[in-house]
Design brief:
Helices cover 62% and strands 0% of the residues. It has 145 residues and is mostly helical.
Length: 145
């Protein structure tokens, strides 16, 4: 973080680590910072803070429709898919979330990493219900403990 504070991917990657460690408050702040840094140039890096924000909201029992909807908008625009290894983070989320949420986040993670996984995400019934959301829609104000 200190070497590349304005690199949009760095705070999102750190947020994913903090998610794994259970520090949701710091993970939320870093996800939001990464999201703001990505806004001028929507690309595959934007998927990372959106994924983290959705996971944090789901973990906290909050409505995750804004970051999930923004992810849907981002995937519809098209991204250059690139591997983002989240095995440990997904394992930690699997222990804390219900099956539907875990399956959705795994499908999103796979779709971020591999274009051919978009079809599996599109077939997910929870994802099918997600409505696209514009990027000028702010994230919800939440309190995390």
């Amino acid at each position: 973080m200190s070497r590349s504070p304005n690199d949009s991917g760095v705070p999102a990657n750190y947020a994913a680590l903090l998610l794994q460690q259970g520090d949701l408050t710091r993970a939320w702040c870093l996800s939001e910072r990464s999201w703001r840094l990505c806004l001028p140039a929507l690309d595959r890096t934007m998927a990372r803070p959106l994924f983290c924000a959705a996971a944090i909201l789901l973990l906290g029992g909050h409505d995750a429709s804004v970051p999930l909807g923004q992810l849907k908008t981002l995937f519809a625009r098209g991204i250059d898919h690139a591997p983002w290894v989240l095995a440990a983070t997904l394992d930690a989320l699997d222990r804390k979330l219900t099956g539907n949420s875990t399956e959705l986040l795994k499908a999103i993670s796979d779709a971020i990493s591999h274009k051919e996984c978009l079809a599996r995400l599109d077939a997910n019934p929870v994802w099918h219900e997600v409505k696209a959301v514009s990027f000028d829609t702010p994230w919800p104000e939440i309190e995390l403990s």
